[in-house]
Structures are given as structure tokens and as C-alpha cells.
Amino acid sequence: MHTLLRVLSFGCAATAIAGSLAGCSTTQDRLPEARYTMTERQVLPLGERLTITYEGAEDSRCPDNARCVWPGQLAYRFTMRIGNVAQGFYLVPGRPGYMSPALRGSLIQLDHLTPLPPRGVAGAAPVSYPVTFNMYAQ
User: Fold this and answer.
1) 124's torsion region: left (phi>0), alpha (psi -120 to 50) or beta?
2) Residue 42 and residue 129 in contact, taking contact as beta carbons nearer than 8 Å
3) Which CATH entry fits the domain spanning 27-121+128-137: 2.60.40, 1.25.40, 2.60.98, 3.30.750?
4) Domain segments of the chain: what residues?
5) Kind and range of the H or E element at 35?
6) How far is CA 86 from CA 1, 30, 42, 60, in A?
7) pLDDT for 51-110, tens place per residue?
């Protein structure tokens, strides 16, 4: 009997680590569809144990006053936390959004109406980029 309880406990821990809380959670409610605007290091609580933190942007786009071989890209970096388990992900303009079992069937996508921030100038300090994304129930 003790072995069965250990196996069931391990199964819940493993699914939590994998990002799926469906088998061990008591609430199966979908996350609300919404539009969120965040600044760097802002934490968005999405439930009892689920949060998303906007870590910042990584901008490798060619600066306005430079010539580049590669045009680069702008990527917004996030960390999703489920209790003590963290998982990082990126949102990149023009690419598909992010979906995880922990989001209970929801998809996170960059808001297509938000204009891209201007490219920087070579040698200038990096700027802070706010980000706007939408969460859709699938």
C-alpha cells in the first residue's frame, strides 16, 4: 500500500515538473482570455501557484546606424512558475505563440497591434521594452 502511495505521489510530482497540473490539481478552470501589458521584472499571477514573469527583451536587430550581415530579431523572455518549478519561454514577433499544459489549454501570443520598439543605436545602452500579449483559450 505504501508503494502505491509513493507511485501516485511521484506521478503528481512528475506531471507538475513536466508542466501539467491537470492530474493533480483540484481546479480544472480555464485561464481567462485577456490582453496583458507588462514591464521588465513584472510578475503576473494567474492562479494559486501559477505566475508568469516578464524577464526582459533580447534585441539583436541591426541598429539604425550600422550595417549588419544578419537582420537579427527581437525576443521577449518570460519565466512561468508553477509552485517551485520554473520554465522559461520566448515570444518572438512573427512566430507562433507559447502553449504549455500548465496553461490549461491557453495559448500566449504577442499582440499583433503593438508596434515594434525602434531599433537602438550602436554602442548605446540597452533600453527597456514593455510587452503586450494576449492569452487565448484553445
Assistant:
1) beta
2) no
3) 2.60.98
4) 27-121+128-137
5) strand 34-38
6) 32, 20, 15, 25
7) 999 999 988 888 877 788 888 888 999 999 998 999 999 999 989 999 988 888 889 999
